[in-house]
Design a protein that fits this description.
about 130 residues, mainly beta, seven-stranded mixed beta sheet
């Protein structure tokens, strides 16, 4: 089993920045892909960003490209999401997810992941 705990959410004004963290524990040696998703009230969960541990490859949703950066620290089993130039439409609960196994996947769909954190609230005021 793998446990994921997010932190770093909060209230910020439009144009501001936040950095989210997701700490993994348990059988972390089996994790090769980690992603961030978000869900706003009344909306479906949507992909935000993904990182592949083995090659460091990353991918982003079009809505956050150029503003968000995903990174990871293998030694700490932690993945980060640096969010800059935040907009009110970025308001959502942000969850990190982890996938076990070395099979390369796009990592943009919820059903590609095996473990999920509880989420952290990000609120951007206008």
């Amino acid at each position: 089993q793998v446990q994921l705990v997010e932190s770093g959410g909060g209230l910020v004004q439009a144009g501001g920045s936040l950095r989210l963290s997701c700490a993994a524990s348990g059988r972390t040696f089996s994790i090769y892909t980690m992603g961030w998703f978000r869900q706003a009230p009344g909306k479906e969960r949507e992909f935000v960003a993904v990182i592949n541990w083995s090659g460091g490859n990353t991918n982003y949703a079009d809505s956050v490209k150029g503003r968000f950066t995903i990174s990871g620290d293998n030694a700490k089993n932690t993945v980060y999401l640096q969010m800059n130039s935040l907009k009110p439409e970025d308001t959502a609960v942000y969850c990190c997810a982890a996938r076990w196994g070395s099979t390369v996947v796009a990592g943009t769909r919820s059903n590609e992941y095996h473990y999920w954190g509880q989420g952290t609230q990000v609120t951007v005021s206008s």
